[in-house]
Amino acid sequence: MKDIIFDLIDSEKKRQSEGLELIPSENYVSADVLAAMGSILTNKYSEGYPSFEGIPGWDEKDIAEKILPNYRYYGGQANIDRIERLAIDRACKLFHADHANVQPHSGAQANTAVYYAWLEPGDTVLGMSLPAGGHLTHGAPVTLSAHFYNFVGYGVTEDGDIDYDQMERLAMKYEPRIILVGYSAFMKLPDFDRVAKIRDKVAKKTGEEILLMADMAHVAGLIAGGVHPNPLDHGFDVMTTTTHKTLRGPRGGIILSKGNVASPLKKPEKTLANIPILIDRAVFPGTQGGPLEHVIAAKAVAFGEDLKPEFKEYAKNVVENAKTLAKELKKHGFKLQGNGTENHLILANVKESFGFDGKVYERALDMVGLTLNANAVASDKGGAFRPSGVRLGTPAITTRGLGKDEMITLALWMKKVADICKEAKTEENLDKYSADLETIRTEVRDLALKFPVPAI
Ligand SMILES: Cc1ncc(COP(=O)(O)O)c(C=O)c1O
Prior knowledge:
CATH superfamily of the largest domain: Type I PLP-dependent aspartate aminotransferase-like (Major domain)
Number of domains: 2
Shape: globular
Structural class: alpha/beta
Helix content: 40-55%
CATH class of the largest domain: Alpha Beta
CATH topology of the largest domain: Aspartate Aminotransferase, domain 2
Strand content: 5-15%
Largest sheet: 7 strands, mixed
Number of strands: 14
Low-confidence stretches: none
Bound molecules: pyridoxal-5'-phosphate
Strand order of the largest sheet: 4-10-9-8-7-5-6
Radius of gyration: 23 Å
CATH architecture of the largest domain: 3-Layer(aba) Sandwich
Distance between the termini: 23 Å
């Protein structure tokens, strides 16, 4: 008998097809990415790494054909080694990196490995604070990293940009070993050069090397598509990212770095030049066991897609759609953090705009088939469970082919749902408006079905 799990997968297919995904950290993978991920590669153990020697100057055919010795702890790696080398090579091409570790199981694992590679317990990291838009893994007290390291947070200015002056003051005061630029809710393009100058100033003061780290989990696809600056082109040593957001790959993480690439077997000196090797050792055996080679194969397929000219067009459309949507929402009275967006992400303060909180709005939008998440805005008084805002974005709907006209329609639906929430005020009361919500639900479903989800 068929496992009930497959019925639930079918129900999820229907939910994805009939609704529109506005969560900015989600996307839809291609049939090829899905096929690689669901392949027999999941059967294989491959602790360790393929050999990196010989890759510079090789084309894909060389990498796919040539067998090299490896640094693995199990036999039978001929195919796995070549798959992982292709994933590494494509990731390096996409982001102009000297090295890529493609094994992190997630973005959180990638960040943990970088901290472990470079820091000693008690060392300080300067990153964006959580209320300002930073991620949990940048020092939230509930995390493992916060248990071992000391995190100091910088904030954003009134107009939603990074407070670079504050960053500099805090860096000079706390002398961090890592300065981190990364976020889950920030709508501007960071000035990486300015951060690099701050690093140089602090390094001159302390006489020590300071690691510049960018967590580009959200915007990596925009970087790959050429519509967002690349931190590795602006003096950064390390960039982490998830692979499932704007990059449109399988769920997972990677770590890109600049520096020497060599055998991970010998412990190198802790210098910035050696950061690729330190990172390899920090991922395995430092913080992970066997790599998920089926996911690494899917990452390689996605990176191959990301290197194609069509992906540049996609990245451009993601940003254009976000800008149109932001403009339309403002016309309807939505107050947006940063007054708009320069990337794929929008943060709307619904409490200030209409008087209800993000959770009520998230629930009401769910009822009409529009999925997003309630999110704190800068200096939010509502706390994590009653935040004042909602966060939305355009990566997934752009993959489905929605464009300018649909952004205008989407903003109108969002306004209609906001009007309902103004009257309902609480989640419990929303049921009273089910007829009005159902009318919008039907319109959303009709539009969604005109733009099929890939690989469903
Ligand atoms: C900036 C940032 N870093 C790290 C992560 C963690 O990624 P994962 O959920 O794959 O662990 C996220 C996820 O949302 C993120 O936005």
